[in-house]
Each structure stands twice: as C-alpha cells, then as structure tokens.
Predict the structure.
Amino acid sequence: TSGSAALSDPIVYGYFEEPTPGSPNGAAFVGVVADTKFSVDRGFFSDPISVAISSETPEAMIVYTLDGSTPLVDAQLNVSNGFVYGAPLSISNTTTLRAAAFKQGYLSTNVDSQTYLFLDDVIQQTRESTLADGFPATWGSRSSDYGLDPDVVGPNDRFGGLYVNQIKDSLLAVPSLSITIDNADFFGPSGIYANPTGQGIGWERAASAELIYPDGAQGFQIDAGLRIAGAASRVLSLKNGLRLLFKDEYGDAKLNYAWFGDGVDQFDTIVLRPHFNDGWGWDGALGDPAYVRDQWFRDTQAAMGNPSSRGSLVHLYVNGLYWGLYNPSERPDASYWAEHFGGDKSQYDVMVADSVHDGDGAAYSTMISLAQAVVSAAPADRFAAYQRLQGNLPDGTQDPLQDDYLDVVNYIDYMILNHYGGNNDWPDRNWYAARLRGSESDGFRFVAWDSEIALDLSDRTSLFENNLGKNSGAAQAYGILRNYDEFRLQFADRIHAHLFNEGALYVDPSDPQYDPAHPQSNIPAARLAELADKVSEAIVAESARWGDAKVSRPLTYANWQAEINWLTRVYFNSRHNTFLNQLRGDGLYTTFRAPEFSQPGGTVPQGYELSMLASPGTIYYTLDGETDPRVIGGEVNPSDAVRVYNGAIPLTGDVIVRARLRTDSGQWSGLVEASFSVLPQTQGDYDRN
C-alpha cells in the first residue's frame, strides 16, 4: 500500500543552524561537534601548566587562538584565524585561550574561553611590553595607557618597596573578571574603546566574560555583548566603564549566577562601573577618591528599606592585560524591575534623567500633573488630591479603580539620601525612576545611581552642601509637594526614622566619633568603613594601574586611606547636625525635640519601663503598631489606642510603640517608632529562686 511504501522510504536526519519557520531551510548538518574540553580550568597559577584541548567527536579539528580573537575556518575547513591544535599547550604566562572544534558536514562548537593568570607576569606588564605584544599605541584619537607603574611596583619604585611587597596580595584581594575580545573590536579603528562616545547596538561587540575567584570558588564563563558605559567619563578618562549584555545571539540569554549574594540571580545586563568621579582616572577628584561613594549611596538606600542597585568589586583584565578595579553593578532598567518585583520588562516605564529609557513617559507626566494638583487644590481638597496621586480613596485606603503614580515613602527617602549626601551631580542627571503600568503598580520608585560627586568629594564643600532648594529633574515632584503640609510632615517622619533611633543615618549625638568597636554610634560611617575594608587591599593594584593617570607622582594607598579617614572621622561626625539644621531652616523638620525613648527598640527584659523625653508639650503614643496619634489635618487621633504619656510604660509583651509630641501651639513632631521584643519571665535561675 501507499502507507507501507512510505514507511520503506529512507529518512535522512540532519541539523539546521537557525530555525526558519515559513522560509526555506538553510544548510543541513549531519551532526553537532561535541564541545571542547580543557584539561586545566581557568584560574591563578605560579608554575607553568600544560593544557590539553579535546572534543569527543572523532576526527574533529580543534582551532585555538591566544590573542583574544575568534578561531575561524572557511567552508573547506581551511583555518582563516588561529592555529590547529595538535598537542598540549605549554603555558607559563598570562594567557587567554579560545578554542572551537570543527568537522566537515557538522555544526561546529561554540567558542570556549579560558583565562590563565600568572601574577608574576601581570606585575611586569608595562606600556613597552604591551606595545611589543602588538597592542596599538593609540586608541582612536586617544593615547593609550597600558601596564603597571614601576614607581609603585618596581623596579626602582618610589616607596621603598612598600607596595612592591603588597601587589600580589592586592591582585588576589577581590575576584577577577577576564574580558576576552578581538583586539580590533576593542582597540581597532571601529573598536569600542577607540570610539568611546559610540552608543547603541552599532557599538556593541561580541566578547567572553569569566569570573575567577582567587580561592578557586565557582565563578562563571559567559559569552556576551560588550559596550562602553557612562556619560562624561567616556571622554574625560582613559579608564572607561563597560557594560555586559547577555543575549541568545551570543549564548545564554541571561546570566544565571548569584553575583551579589542572596536575591535575584538572573541578569540581562551588568554595568562595570570604573569609579570615574570617585577614582584616580578623573583629574576633577584631585587626591580625594574613596572608591566607595556610589556604592555607599546604593547600600544606604537599601538600608533605608528601598530598592537599590547591588554591586561588588572585581579586578578587570582585558585580553590578559590588567585594567584596574571595577564595580560590577545591577542596572536599574526595566529588566531589573521585572526580575526584582515581577511582571514582564515590557510592562515597565523607566525614566533616566528626564528621558524615557523603557516604555513611555505618559505616566511620569501624569505623576507630575497629579503632584501639581495637590498644591493647586483648595485646602479642603488637598488631602484627597494627595491620595489620588498614590492611587487611594480620599480616606487614604486603596482605590482598586485608580492607578498609583508615586511611592511617596520611597521618594522621600530618596530625596533625604541625596540631600544628606550633598549630591552635586544631581538632580538633573544621574537618576532612575520606574513604574509598573496598571492597577498592580506601586507608583514610580526612584533609585540612587552614579552618586559619586558627593560626600565631600574634591572641594570640601558638601559637608555644608544644601540641596533642599532643588526642584528640577528627579526633584521636580519634591519641589511641588514640599508646599503641602502633610507631605512636609511625612518628610519629617522619614527624617526621624533614618537619622534617629539607630536608623540608616543615625549618629549618636553624645558620641559621634566613628569607632569600629561600636559601629552603632555612627551608622553611616560604619557602612562606609565596611565598604572601604573590601577596597583596602585591592587599591594597591588600582594605584599601580591608574594612580598616575592625571599626576606625575602616583596616588597610592596612603592617599586613599587619608580620604577614608576624612570621611569616617570628620564628614559623618559633622554632617548629621549640619543636615538637621538645614532641614529645620527649610521647614522640613521641627525645631523642637521629638520624643526620645529610653531605649530605641530591641530586646528588653520583662516589665522594662519605657520612658520618653521631649520638648515642652504633650506626648501621645500608641502600642498597636498601626495607629498614628495624629490624624490628617492636625488633630489628636480620637482612637482608643491613643494615650497620653504621663510616666514610664511597663512593657510586658512584644510591642511596637509609636509616639509624637504636640506642642502647646498645636505643632506636631515627626513620628517616632520602635519595636520591642520582651523576654519571658525568668524562673528558677541562679539569680532568683
């Protein structure tokens, strides 16, 4: 029958390189060449190694390169770039090895990359040796900068051998990220580093990225697109930022790796921040870079209870050349918000410095209009307008029929952070805001980004910097809403939450000096010191690479440590009171004292008597963790949960205490809130029978 005849027809199986639905098939392949394997995995080495490369496919031809370029063959398997592998390779210096396997009629493997780092070789990299290896003397119109400075690492260094003895440990102080890329794609006439102002897909090049840990912990290798990142840094520094983009056209469509610890471990892109303004590659910073300012802003935003961009540290290598200390960071674009908060990235509107980055700008314009409507409304209607901005009914409860346009608490915290840090390159630049479209939205949320010209950088004026009058860019909604009483009081509430009672910006007024043994006495300084500890050993290598970028005598660890000392011992000690006085002068915080608890929360014994102190007036408090002693409009909340403080309050169970002071003239303090965990009654211990 026709059916049996069909069954007897021969069937030829094959593979296609690309799917072509609705179009003619491309060339078919008999099979797929088995992936290449290396006998020695990437890492750090001190002795020569022998590396064998293999493929399980019989008679497959392996082609390799040692210069970052891609192994290539033509249709007849004639090698057009690279070398045919025949025997194990002897490797004794820093090497980027790339290999692929080919067989006639078979689909070839992808290109695998392995970086072998020999620190004895790395510390001898100089401009002269790099040029001798064939790297270009110029990067487009820019002069090139290669190698480590002998003034730091020798021979005949300027510092009596101090850093010569530390350089290897410095290079092992943080993980290393090796970028392998065709030299022409990086340094050539059409290369991205030779054309640093080039942006967009037209200035993206294929590369390999390998994360290598000094202790042998599991890192990763991934093929990705590579672009230059940054704004002014593209032309004002030879140490440029870079961005990795993970796409299926290169390999995996996402990086699946817990680069920043717990939490999101899938990424569409990672920015390799070069510490531009807060680094030695920019002459505007003089000798003041700390290499931690931007990450301090982002970590502080997280400590305030808000979304933030996580980051880490790596030593970067490009085709085996040491390139300096970099800060890999999450980029808060639409994919970031989708990974962290759900939804698809196509559902997010993201604004970057007043420009639409993802989605469109309609919702952001609506948010600004709704903020303006708050202060334009008649006094009796302002609270309802304020709630409309937040997607609520006039009574403050959520309205399922209205969209939320602004996360007010997040926004206030964001403003406090930038005001406190004296951010001088903001608010018209360097900001991200994002919002999920639709009824599930929490409104626009703002995240700190590129906050480097801050915390007293270079001119020693931001100790007294007052940004409270800013009203454009990221501060536009703030400039409008600060004219509304309820917003100002909410601002005061958040000030109290963060600058008092061991909040994210708390400094003990009785003992403001940072002390590593008592970090809670100066929390912002302790946070910066923790970041500095991670930079400390690694900074010697950065000094050797970029410490002489703008000066004849290289800047060193000693310069860096002096800046860390200034920040922890001077800036944060003084900034707290300076900032509070600025807020009071602008009507954003009260001139009278809010209630102070005898203990700012935490664990207390059974029956602990909580006392409160404040300026003259009446203290109102609640113990249910929900009720505010004040209602909208300024009256005392009539709820039965509200009590007048007349003396110490015995705590017999876990409780959240909320309190405000009301002066005799009717003014309210910021809200003070603390959680207490009460220990159970102790029975029969050796102290009590």
User: Anything to note?
Assistant: The two ends are 100 Å apart (CA to CA). Residues 1-8, 683-689 have pLDDT under 50 and may be disordered. Residues 557-585 form the longest helix (29 residues). DSSP finds 17 helices and 39 strands in the chain.
